[in-house]
């Protein structure tokens, strides 16, 4: 089973959704391949960015704090720590390029996880190329090579391809899962819901294969 996941590094629901997908796959009786695809919730953030709470308050007003509280509570239940008091708003285009670079070395998921921790827990500015190179080094990749890559235009077309495909699919919010190229699951669904969806998809595929 192939799962393509459109997500953004600074999207807390994507962080939760990734954890729930991992739990679902662990409970699913079948081989699953997961590929993470680039999406930008807001491509207008400059880097270096503002404190996230300040940026979100400007965008959503008083409701921003309620949003933070809700997702923080849900993330805690999934074993994730979100520290919005430290988080920095950042343009994620370069982080998606870095994920594409790590994917070429078989390290896509660990790179995404490290960037999510850097943003949500450590309060690092993942719009900074120096920070991104450091995060790459933290998972055992070559920091100097990551820095050189980020200073080039490499990976730009890969990210733009993902963003274009998201537009073609009409994706407006993430996480967004496409299973076997034809089944869509939207949002950070509970792990049990995802398991049920994967089982139903496997059943349908088996029926189609038997015809």
Topology:
Blueprint: E1 2-7, H1 12-27, E2 33-38, H2 52-60, H3 63-77, H4 93-103, H5 108-120, H6 129-138, H7 143-151, H8 156-169, E3 176-179, E4 183-186, H9 191-209
Parallel strand pairs: 1-2
Antiparallel strand pairs: 1-3, 3-4
Amino-to-carboxy terminus distance: 19 Å
CATH classification, class level = Alpha Beta
Rg result: 17 Å
CATH homologous superfamily (4th level) name: Glutaredoxin
Strand content: 5-15%
Can you characterise this structure?
The chain is of the alpha+beta class. The protein has one domain (2-209): 3-Layer(aba) Sandwich (Glutaredoxin). Helix content is 55%, strand content 9%. The protein contains nine helices and four strands, in the order βαβαααααααββα. A four-stranded mixed β-sheet has the order 2-1-3-4, sandwiched between helices. A hairpin with a 3-residue loop joins β3 (176-179) and β4. The protein is globular, with a radius of gyration of 17 Å. The relative contact order is 0.19.
């Amino acid at each position: 089973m192939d799962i393509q996941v459109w997500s953004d590094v600074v999207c807390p629901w994507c962080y939760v959704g990734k954890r729930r997908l991992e739990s679902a796959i662990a409970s699913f009786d079948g081989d699953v391949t997961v590929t993470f695809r680039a999406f930008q919730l807001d491509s207008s953030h400059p880097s270096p960015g503002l404190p996230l709470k300040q940026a979100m308050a400007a965008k959503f007003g008083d409701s921003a704090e309620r949003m933070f509280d809700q997702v923080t509570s849900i993330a805690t239940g999934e074993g994730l720590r979100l520290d919005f008091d430290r988080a920095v708003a950042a343009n994620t285009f370069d982080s998606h390029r870095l994920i594409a670079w790590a994917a070429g070395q078989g390290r896509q998921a660990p790179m995404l996880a490290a960037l999510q921790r850097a943003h949500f827990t450590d309060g690092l500015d993942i719009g900074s190329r120096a920070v991104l190179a450091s995060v790459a080094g933290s998972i055992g990749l070559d920091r100097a090579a990551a820095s050189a890559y980020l200073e080039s235009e490499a990976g730009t077309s890969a990210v733009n391809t993902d963003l274009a495909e998201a537009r073609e699919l009409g994706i407006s919010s993430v996480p967004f899962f496409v299973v076997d190229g034809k089944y869509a699951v939207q949002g950070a669904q509970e792990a049990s819901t995802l398991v049920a969806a994967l089982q139903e998809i496997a059943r349908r595929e088996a029926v189609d294969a038997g015809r």
